[in-house]
Write a structure and sequence with these properties.
- By secondary structure, this protein is an alpha+beta fold.
- It contains 16 helices and twelve strands.
- It has two domains: 197 residues, no CATH class; 227 residues, no CATH class.
């Protein structure tokens, strides 16, 4: 086998001029596949990053008793369960402890005669979520210092309507839990670029929001976990966290859809029960969009692979014809038909892997140049799927193996018919054809 591989490799380099056009095509096709896969995965990762900030984490703990509002009465027990994830092998970036207020009709921001409504106000602890909030695409400012209860972060969509800048004092008005209209003067510490989908949300300190709501200052509505590998670990971590919480608290089933989320929130209970909801359950519409993008990318990949198979098949048919005399000589010297077939198939494998190696280098180079050099203007696509106005791309190890397998496999498949034809040639026929 070693001798056969060595012979095939020698023949590949000896006939490299015959392969050069096909090799260039394989390089370009691999580069396109690399770019398409890496961008789709990068956009998905960026979307999960933005959604996790909006929803308090990749996995979020809720607690309900039937009134539709989440309130975590035992945050220490939940935190103890979250801390048990690390010994279980879960890579956790950080966790959140939030107070949330959702009321489109009763949240208003005022500045210098302008006002704008918000979907909701989120009370966060700056030090806990700084590793995540610092990933905002800040137009101005940054994450406030830990314990800054006068700070507020707003989106560019909000800032544009208010004509406000970092350092200005913003008036926040909400209808409290007791039915009072309460206000607070807060200082804008940061303005982040965000799409309208995630943009009409204001971040303030958790204690500040609780005082505005006239709620206990330590009240917690949601606790979330930010994962290092959210897409791959989400389902497993939801199960682990539910199991750990079950040791201390009454729990209910994992909420895997918006319908389950609504049903659990409104279900009447004898006591407050705890459960987790994942990003996937919160992003059904966008998940459908990402599914459509993935489908389109898959169609593009299949089209290019079809081109590879046809191109390799035509090229190898010509190569086998031109090398008929060589095949006849080898057969006359005693090389068996299977070895002739495998020799050409191994050459096709070398051709495919050469194209993969050069094509991936080209594709990664193009991606990195675009990411480093091009800053995209804010629009619906860039603010929803891009990271800090840059094109995101991710190429995991499985993606490298997938592209390598597809391109190399297509190269072998394309050469199969010509290789079988070469193996069927008799020595006399091959020598006569090569004259």
């Amino acid at each position: 086998m070693t001798a056969l591989i060595s012979t095939a490799l020698r023949n590949f380099f000896r006939n490299i001029k015959r392969y050069r056009v096909l090799l260039m095509a394989l390089v370009l096709i691999t580069a396109v596949l690399t770019i398409v896969l890496a961008v789709v995965l990068g956009m998905r990762t960026a979307l999960y990053e933005k959604a996790s900030r909006y929803f308090a984490g990749n996995i979020v703990v809720m607690a309900y008793n039937g009134n539709g509002a989440s309130r975590i009465e035992k945050p220490e027990e939940v935190l103890q369960s979250i801390r048990q994830l690390d010994p279980l092998g879960v890579a956790v970036r950080c966790f959140s402890r939030r107070s949330t207020y959702y009321d489109l009709n009763n949240i208003e921001l005022f500045f210098s005669g302008y006002y704008v409504k918000q979907r909701r106000i989120v009370g966060v602890e700056w030090d806990l979520e700084s590793p995540v909030l610092s990933k905002f695409d800040f137009i101005e400012g940054s994450v406030p210092d830990a314990g800054d209860e006068e700070a507020v972060l707003i989106s560019s969509a909000t800032a544009n309507q208010l004509h406000i800048a970092v350092g200005d004092k913003l008036l926040v008005s909400i209808l409290s839990d007791l039915g009072h209209i309460n206000t607070a003067d807060l200082i804008v510490r940061g303005i982040f670029s965000e799409s309208s989908f995630f943009g009409y949300q204001t971040y303030i300190h958790r204690y500040t929001l609780n005082r505005l709501r006239e709620a206990p200052v330590e009240r917690v509505n949601e606790m979330g976990v930010y994962l290092v590998n959210p897409i791959s670990d989400e389902e497993r971590v939801a199960e682990l966290l539910t199991r750990e919480m079950g040791k201390f608290l009454p729990v209910f089933v994992i909420m895997k859809s918006r319908e389950q989320y609504t049903a659990q929130a409104s279900k009447l209970r004898d006591e407050r029960e705890y459960g987790v909801v994942s990003i996937s359950a919160q992003l059904k519409e966008i998940e459908d969009l990402m599914g459509a993008i993935t489908l389109i990318a898959s169609v593009v990949i299949l089209m290019f692979l079809g081109i590879v198979v046809v191109g390799v098949s035509n090229t190898f048919t010509m190569i086998v014809w031109e090398r008929s005399r060589e095949v006849g000589t080898l057969r006359a010297l005693g090389m068996q038909r299977p070895r002739v077939i495998f020799s050409f198939l191994i050459e096709a494998l070398f051709l495919g892997m050469s194209g993969v190696s050069l094509g991936m280098l080209l594709g990664i180079g193009v991606l990195e140049i675009v990411r480093s050099a091009v800053s995209f203007p804010p629009n619906v696509v860039s603010t929803l799927f891009f990271t800090q106005a840059r094109l995101p791309w991710v190429l995991p190890v499985w993606g490298v193996f997938l592209i390598s397998g597809l391109v190399a496999g297509a190269s072998i498949l394309g050469s199969l018919q010509a290789s079988l034809r070469a193996g069927r040639l008799s020595p006399a026929e091959a020598l006569r054809r090569g004259k």
